Amino acid sequence: MCRLLGMVTGPLELPPAGLPSWYHCVGAPHALRHQAETGKVPPGNPPGHEDSWGLGWLDRAGQVSLLRQVGSASGSAYFVFASETASKTASVFLGHLRKASCGAVTSDNAHPVRVDPLEGESGDSLLVIHNGTLKGALLSWVQEEGKAAGRREAHSDSDTVALAGWIAAQVGHIGGEQRPKKLAEALRQLLTQAAHDGDATQNYTAINLLIAAPEGLYALRQCSKNADYYTLSARPLQEGGWVLASEPTDTEAGWEALTPGELVFYSAHDSAVQKEIVV
After folding, report:
1. How far apart are CA 157 and CA 3, in angstroms?
2. Does the structure show a pLDDT above 90 at 232?
3. CA-to-CA distance for 264 and 124, rounded, in angstroms?
4. Cβ neighbours of residue 155 closer than 8 Å, sequence gap 6 or more
5. Which pairs with CB-CB distance under 8 Å and at least 24 residues apart come from 232-239?
């Protein structure tokens, strides 16, 4: 159970304006920092998404920056510092607030989760954030698939860390141009596996994902329950590019909910928005 934020820059041919990461993390009326205390929670849950927070981003060269911390973003000076720093270099940006449901409350289990190529393997580093919980047979399947692929993340007590390792095993080595379709195929397999016994609620609450890659930002909204909590919306940025959030960070016009079961790819190199049905 978490709150997500993602941003991606506009086309390369536009003058570089940076990403308004400080505004959407700190300064906006319903910025991510405020959502740590005031963000929506599922029915019957205590308020707050204050177990941990993380901010991560990739620059134009695909180099990764990542800062994660246990505790609430609402009172963290490091959270403010990182949101300011990202605006100078980020091409694709992720922010996350954690309300733990699976896995210990540690910095290693905070999101974004960074997944790198295996030793001797070519490929890209990716950043992954997730809202929802994998459980039951689906979590076991993700862990076993990850172990078979040699991913150390499969041994984590966090469902998101295991899922990030599985994603890396599926598409981390795939070239950027081919990754949108390959990721859609992998997520289609994941969701087919989740529905195998006919009751997806036994296998996950939600698989709301934002994935940062050198080529752009990937987004998926999919839940099996509590659809009014497991939300994800997007709006275009005035500077070019896009901002996505579990809850809109401001009152600007243009926020639109993502269609459940649809993987959306927002390119960091041109104005392309690509969509693939995965369920």
Report:
1. 20
2. yes
3. 19
4. 143, 147
5. 232/4, 232/131, 232/208, 232/257, 232/258, 233/257, 233/258, 234/258, 234/264, 234/266, 237/7, 237/10, 237/19, 237/20, 239/10, 239/17, 239/18, 239/19, 239/20
Q: How confident is the model at residue 13 (pLDDT cuts 50, 70, 90)?
A: low
Question: What would you report as the CA-atom Rg of the chain, rounded to the nearest whole angstrom?
Answer: 17
What is the value of pTM for the model shown? 0.96
Q: What distance, in Å, lies between the first and last C-alpha atoms of the chain? A: 22
* Crossing angle (nearest 10°) for helices 136-148 and 159-171: 50
Q: Is the dihedral of CA 83, 85, 90, 96 positive or negative?
A: negative
Integer Cα distance of 66 and 94 in angstroms: 9
pLDDT value, residue 100: 87
Which segments of 16-129 does DSSP mark as H helices, in order?
Answer: 21-22, 32-38, 77-89
Question: CA 185, CA 29: separation in Å to the nearest integer?
Answer: 38
- The neighbour count for residue 256, using CB atoms within 10 Å, is 10
> 235 and 243 in contact (C-beta within 8 Å)?
yes
Q: Which domains does the chain have, with CATH numbers?
A: 2-277 (3.60.20.10)
Please give the mean pLDDT across all residues of the chain. 94
| Closest among 278, 276, 266 to 7, alpha carbons compared | 266
AA letter at 229: Y
* Six-digit token string for 264: 């959306």
Q: Label residue 256 by pLDDT band (50, 70, 90).
A: very high
Residue 17 corresponds to which tokens in the numbers above? 């304006």
What number of H helices and E strands is found in the chain?
6, 13
